[in-house]
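Review form for a predicted model. The reviewer records the input and the model, then writes brief findings.
Reviewer: anonymous (R2)
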Amino acid sequence: MPFRLLFWASLVGCATACAGSPPATGALPSAIGKAGASRASGTFVIGNKHHHVYTNLNISTESGDCVRIEHSTDITIERSQIGPCGGNGVSVSGSRFVRIYDSYIHPETRSKGCCDRNDGVLLENVTNAIVAGNVIAYGESNVEAPLGGSDLSIAGNFLLNPRGPFPRGQNVQAWNVHRIVVRKNYTLSSRNSRRYLYPDDQEDSINFGLGESFKAEDNYVTGGESPSGCGIIADDGANQVAMLGNVLVDTGACGIGIASGTRQIVDRNRVINRNPVKGGGNTAIYVWNQYPSVACGPVRFSYNIATEVRKDGTQSGFWDGGGCGPVARKHNVWNEPAYKQLTPVREKLSPPEIPPQPKSCVVESPYSTQTKWPPC
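Model under review:
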């Protein structure tokens, strides 16, 4: 986030899975069914429930969250159509062992001001949660874990065009959490309003802060035009961050940023940016302590291949702004040699199918292209 600022001084649907279970509490939708059935309106509240599976929900709201899970344990939502929503798509608070699988979640509403009124999936004070195989689009942030989370897995999703406003606007943002893995997601941000329903207003695509044991691994990250944003960043107080084997294509002013934190590892990533941003730092990978009161380092960079092509034709694969020592660098490739290894991008760094790794089936959405799993 801060790079530019400092760099430039079913009830019906789940009948088979949860037959005999009591209905969720709160305002119940008038109808819940398979995708294509009549769409329910009104927040679907799962409060103080345990060991339930909800399948084929079809919910939208004009105001309020579409789905709210509160103080519950062992809850699964799968194969569902959630959105548009006047609030968040799925809001989870004070709960454990929550799974959200193979669903299309698209809140679409953009409220004025911040924060967490229109996220795709919002996780607050949640432990042992999995968000996997979904298509999540047009959220304030698409997956947001702002406080009290631990043992979270965000895997195999397609995440499209977060809409902000700042300081949200991430495909995945996790702060004040411990032990989160973000793996095998395809994150895309675009301002092409002819192709997508809403343009992005992305800050960073994947953003970690104030916690420890963060991992971003094997993600495909593309798009972004914020002068202060990165594809993946270790932000304020994010410790023990591992960025491993990710592919970043045209993420704007910054591919990978280490702005803070201790025991950081950046290994085997491939980064090529050909869309420099006016007023941005415009480097593929950087390390620089942007929070002087917070410890930074050691940091290890190994086996990365990275470059950013600036508007004047020069290239910047790596930049060290200081304050994060010791910094170890081993077997990396930068600038023109990296450019030669990473191009042509369409052949060497092609994006995955959508969603990249479903749990059991491919959810119906305007963007789904995956054919290795059956349709839901």
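Findings: DSSP finds four helices and 34 strands in the chain.
Further findings: Residues 205-343 form one domain.
Recommendation: see findings above.
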